[in-house]
Design goal:
The protein is α/β, with parallel strands linked by helices. The chain contains eleven helices and twelve strands. It has a seven-stranded parallel beta sheet, covered by helices on one side. Helix 4 links the parallel strand 4 and strand 5. The longest helix has 19 residues. The two termini are 25 Å apart.
């Protein structure tokens, strides 16, 4: 088996240093040379020398000097920020991190939904007051309908995690013919018809021309007044002023937002003032297992390259 030199660029992920990634790869690929580009000089030199580069970003000028580069293993799911044309001209394969965030984002979603259903936030408030006084739950999830907008790797994991709660599921995706793990799959054009029967609306789609402002005044009006909206996609998927108006008018039971528009959310923004709005500062993507999952993809791909000699047919290959 030939040695494939791997350069890990010093791009942290969710506050976890890239040095951890290099250490994991070095341990799991003991027959290959793994280098962490920890300084600007090392960054430039290793990019020129390495066959495989793992990092979040690279620019076209760097690609032009990367004489040995055959694979860029991107540390994010999105690759629109990469110079894909320059990479293609050099014949460099590109993979992404799709699916790495599935389990942790799904648990984030479930944590919020269960908090709403069982009113665990009220339990915490009474605990802080040392008040032993009973309260009633809001609902049970069993028998409810969960609509998941976006059936990529994360969206599918969200649906799978709801599997043990006896809920009906509706998945929304661009290409309905691809199907999915939900009881029903519909296109974006049919979302309006699904909203009146939705108890929990989970947004886990990319921000595109189609999804920007997808959930606005009309969509929020269409939801039942006891519905919950969960956004772990991008803040711009929801029309924020319309959401504030719906919450202020008691047209929703509540919302849980890991992303907002604007972001960061200003300290004087109205969303901070609602007790039925749960906010986290874009942290659903964090998991202590992030680099291990990234390593799973890269190790599998390097084994494939060693077996076939080809940088095609790789897991998570996008270019």
């Amino acid at each position: 088996m030939s040695t494939i030199d791997i350069a890990v660029l010093d791009h942290d992920a969710h506050g976890i240093p890239a040095a951890d990634y290099a250490e994991i790869l070095d341990r799991r690929l003991s027959d290959r040379e793994v280098r962490l580009a920890a300084t600007p000089d090392e960054h430039d030199r290793y990019l020129r020398e390495a066959t495989v580069v793992a990092g979040k970003r690279v620019d076209a000028d760097e690609v032009a000097t990367a004489e040995n580069l055959r694979l860029f293993a991107c540390n994010s799911a999105g690759v629109d920020h990469l110079p894909l044309d320059a990479l293609a001209e050099r014949g460099v394969a590109v993979t992404n991190a799709s699916g790495v965030h599935g389990p942790n984002v799904a648990e984030h979603v479930l944590g919020w939904v269960l908090t709403f259903a069982r009113r665990l936030d009220e339990g915490r408030r009474r605990q802080r007051r040392r008040e032993w006084r009973r309260f009633q739950s809001f609902t049970e999830l069993a028998g409810s309908t969960v609509t998941v907008v976006g059936l990529g790797a994360i969206g599918e994991t969200v649906v799978e995690r709801f599997g043990g709660f006896d809920v009906d599921t509706v998945g929304v995706r661009h290409t309905v013919s691809k199907g999915g793990p939900t009881d029903e799959v519909i296109g974006y054009g049919d979302l309006a018809d699904a909203l009146p029967g939705t108890d929990v609306l989970v947004l886990v789609c990319p921000l595109t021309e189609t999804t920007a402002g997808l959930i606005g005044e009309a969509e929020l009006d269409a939801l039942p007044t006891d519905a919950i909206v969960v956004n772990v996609a991008r803040g711009g998927v929801i029309d924020t002023p319309a959401l504030v108006d719906a919450l202020r008018s008691n047209e929703l039971h509540g919302a849980a937002l890991d992303v907002t528009d604007p972001e960061p959310l200003p300290s004087d923004h109205d969303l901070w003032g609602f007790e039925n709005v749960f906010l986290t500062p874009h942290v659903a993507g964090h998991t202590p297992r992030y680099w291990e999952r990234r390593a799973d993809i890269l190790v599998e791909n390097l084994e494939w390259v060693a077996e076939t000699g080809a940088y095609e047919g790789l897991r998570n290959q996008v270019a």
